[in-house]
Design brief:
The protein is an alpha/beta fold and 307 residues long. 43% of the residues lie in helices and 11% in strands. It is built from 13 helices and nine strands. It has a nine-stranded mixed beta sheet with strand order 1-2-6-5-4-3-7-8-9, sandwiched between helices. It is globular, with a radius of gyration of 23 Å.
């Protein structure tokens, strides 16, 4: 409905049942949707959200206006309607290839955090921009590494209102990101509590913002694998770092490799190749030529059989 008639018109449609549904919408499904959604409207909610937005000094970003990430267009009907932001919105309008999404295990190991710090530090010398959520573990390691190397280079994507930092233990980290020239964003208004479904929905934003998504460490059922799935749907490359086969914290990374959803990442150069694919090297061409010559020749085999 938003795509067909626009947000203001959709809201008017919900508030006034006399406005007919667009011809492109199935009348039965459209009526069910209008009745269910209209019942959730709260009088004065828009004014309340506007007041809270001003109170917390947040920016509001909308499609087609300054600061809106062009890469969200790839989400189609799943694109967010608007964003609340705190910090420097210019990071959101940088080129897609300049942004790298990092996500992974909350209960990360020292190995996973060390690898994350090394990858981020090397990438930021190119330079690149880091995109991550706000969780403990890999997300936090990516943000902190970015702040240490080049502060105005990190985007934090949160699942709840920006006035309710989650986890609360990262309140100072989120503030440091905004103060240093980075940015926090959320598609939910102030006073919104993060929920399981909002974390699931956030995965598509993380995937859409990054030219590539990197998972340094993740368990077999880690929520970060949702980011890999959404990135794959968008046709964006995914990279992951192998770990010890005895480590449960790396089993999700090995799962992505086994299922062919991710490329092996061993250093920052591998990520650069995902973001800026280079033409085939002489070495790879030579290897292909050797393989071609070593392959059985069906014609020769047939002639030998005839003799």
């Amino acid at each position: 409905m938003l795509r067909i008639i626009g947000p203001a018109e959709t809201l008017a449609l919900l508030r006034n049942p006399r406005i007919p549904l667009p011809a492109q919408v199935d009348p039965v499904l459209g009526t069910e949707w209008r009745e269910a959604t209209a019942a959730r409207l709260v009088d004065g909610l828009a004014d309340q959200v506007a007041r809270l937005t001003d109170q917390h000094q947040l920016l509001v970003l909308t499609p087609g206006r300054a600061g809106w990430p062009a890469s969200f267009a790839d989400l189609g009907d799943r694109a967010p309607v608007m964003l609340w932001a705190k910090g420097n919105p210019e990071l959101l309008t940088s080129s897609l290839a300049s942004r790298v999404t990092f996500t992974g295990a909350r209960a990360s190991s020292s190995y996973g955090e060390h690898v994350t710090r090394e990858l981020v530090a090397d990438l930021l010398r190119e330079p690149r921009i880091v995109v991550a959520g706000g969780a403990y573990g890999i997300d936090a390691a990516a943000h902190r590494a970015a702040l240490a190397i080049r502060p105005a280079s990190t985007i934090a994507v949160l699942a709840g209102g920006l006035d309710r930092p989650y986890p609360s233990g990262h309140t100072d980290l989120f503030q440091d990101i905004a103060d240093a020239g980075g940015i926090q964003i959320s598609e939910t208004p102030p006073e919104t509590t993060p929920t399981k479904w909002r974390f699931i929905a956030r995965a598509r934003l993380l995937a859409a913002l990054g030219g590539a998504s990197i998972i340094p460490e993740a368990g077999y059922r880690s929520g970060s694998l949702l980011v890999a799935a959404r990135a794959t749907e968008l046709g964006r490359p995914v990279g992951t770092v192998p770990g010890p086969i005895t480590s449960a914290a790396s089993s999700g990374c090995h799962r992505l490799l086994r299922e062919g959803l991710a490329e092996v990442i061993t250093h920052a150069g591998d990520i650069t190749e995902l973001l800026d694919p280079a033409p085939p090297s002489f070495l790879s061409s030579a290897i292909q030529e050797v393989a071609r010559r070593a392959a059985p020749d069906a014609g020769k085999a047939a002639r030998r059989a005839a003799l």
